[in-house]
């Protein structure tokens, strides 16, 4: 059962860190946070390369946000005050913009599984 305030997170399902983090969010708020691996079929309005480069989230109104704003959209829906505080504290532009730049700078260095003939290994992009 989904909620009117639910979001869909488009993430890299070949990144073990991304999978672990997104699973945590979805498990904590299953009616509010839906997951979609960008390595499979994706909606036409989502650019695969962009979605694999940084987290993208579809908001309840259909708008797409990415990068740090995508994390904020998820954190606002998580149970527990500390998540909403984190979202509120990092939303102002003087904080959010530098954090987004750091996130986009680090994201290409995340580990990523490469599968060939059913054998998977973890490599850097």
From TrEMBL:
Q: Which InterPro entries match?
A: DCC1-like
Task: From the Swiss-Prot or TrEMBL record, give the protein name.
Answer: DCC family thiol-disulfide oxidoreductase YuxK
Q: What is the lineage of its organism?
A: Bacteria, Pseudomonadati, Pseudomonadota, Alphaproteobacteria, Maricaulales
Q: Which domain of life is it from?
A: Bacteria
Which organism is this entry from?
Maricaulis maris (strain MCS10) (Caulobacter maris)
Provide the GO MF annotations for this entry.
protein-disulfide reductase activity
